[in-house]
Each structure stands twice: as C-alpha cells, then as structure tokens.
Amino acid sequence: MLTPSHFRGYGMTKIKWKSSGAILITAFVSLTTSAAETNHGWTYTGNHGPAHWGALSEAFHACESGRAESPINIEGAKKAPADMPRLKINYAPLPIDIVNTGHAVQFNATPGTDSITLGDHAYQLVQFHFHSPGEERFGGKESVMDAHLVHSSADGKLLVLAVQFKLGERANPVIQAMLDRVPNEAGAEMKVTAVTVNPLDLLPKNKGYYTYSGSLTTPPCTEGVTWIEFKEPMTITKQQLDAMHHFYNGNQRPVQPTNGREIFEVD
Ligand SMILES: [Zn+2]
Hints:
- Keywords: Lyase, Metal-binding, Signal, Zinc.
- Belongs to the alpha-carbonic anhydrase family.
- One of its GO terms (molecular function) is zinc ion binding.
- Pfam families: Carb_anhydrase.
- A hairpin with a 5-residue loop joins strand 12 and strand 13.
- The longest helix has 10 residues.
- The chain has 267 residues and is mainly β.
- It has a single domain, classed as Alpha carbonic anhydrase (Carbonic Anhydrase II).
- The strands form 2 sheets. It has a 15-stranded mixed β-sheet that branches.
- It is globular, with a radius of gyration of 18 Å.
- It has 5 helices and 18 strands.
- Bound molecules: zinc ion (ZN).
- Zinc ion binds next to strand 9.
- Zinc ion (ZN) binds next to strand 9.
C-alpha cells in the first residue's frame, strides 16, 4: 500500500531553530542508516542505475517486470472521447517546504490544501519535483527539464501532472523560490512558513494534455498512476537550469516500452 508519506522522503530527524522575527526555519537532517534502508541505494547511473533497480529490492519488482511503466515516448495519441472526465485544478499558494531528496529537488505540499479533480475523483497535491533532462518524450524529443506534480486520492490512487520546460527569457517564480533555498545536503529539508509559492505558476496557460496509465518513474516504480502531460511547455532561464544542475543533472529514467497502451489527447 502506498501512502503519500512514501513520496515525501526518507527517515529523518528534525532540528528546529528560530531565526529573526516571525520566520521559523525547520531543517530535517537525514539519518544515514534509515535513509539507506528506504533507498536501497538506487541511483541514475552505474551498478545501482535504472537497469538494476528491480534487483535492488523485492519491493522494486515492478521496475524490472512491470508492463505499464513510465516514462514513455508520447506519440500516436488518439483524440479523447467526448465523455472523458474533465480536469479541474484548485491550487492556492503554499508555504515553502523544500527537500533535497538525494534524487531530486522536491517541494512538499501542505496536506489537505491543494487539490485537483478529474471528473468526480478528487486528488490532493502531495509534492512536486523536477527531472533534468525531462523524462517524458514528445515524438522522441526530450525537454531540458520537467516538473512532476504528484497527487493522491483518498483511496490511494495516484495522479501526476507533468510539465515540460524549455529555455527562455522568463524565469519561473516557483522554481526560483525553491532554488534560492534548496539545502545542499541530501535528506535535508527547508521550511519557511512566511514565504509562499503558487503551484499554478508551474502550469501552462493552455491546459491541453496527453494522458495515459503508467507508473512512478522512481523505485518502487508502482503502476496504476494516471499521467497527465501538458502539451505546452513553460520556460526557465539558462541561469535557473544551471542552478538546478548544481543539485541534479541526469535524474532521468530511460523511456519504457508502451506495450500497446493507449494515449489520449485532450484539447
Ligand atoms: Zn518524477
């Protein structure tokens, strides 16, 4: 059973201190042993890289034997049937809560705050994180970076909104707020309750998307995840991409076989 806590990070101890005025900063410093146990030492390269994830733990079985894995190359999408459930996004600003997970820069959402609905199904935003290069391919092309906004429903179903980024003149404010505060140490967390970001600023104006059923792109590679891939990319500056690469460059799982899965296109 996967709960949102599975996507928040690893075993951590908490250190709190007060800074000037009303800003409370909380840092979480990882316990090396528990982090290693939860992680099973997976990486993006070498002996613990994507081709070996399934062998690192029985819990990672789907990484090797799954038939509906992510990411995929999006092509040959069919027009969505008219009765396909509609996506509705209800995001509001969230206080800063950033984790350097050891695999990505991640923002933890305040539980029960931001939600989306797909038809009658409600999903809460749990966290969002970034991959560079982007994991999904559109017609074989990869982007410089993507954002994955991970949501969970009350009955434990997962839905990820994915956004591609291209280089441009316009800096992304959410990404900048994060880059200004990401802890250098893997496993560390930074909370700043006095500063908020709105995850809506990560999403393109045009909400057209591709959708298919896939998996988590990191161990345990759990399937049954609804993917919604916005077609229109957002922009980040070269400076922002370089700053992201200071933390992670190459946290990208290779493309997985589609195995006949249907991909739908929603305008
Ligand atoms: Zn991801």
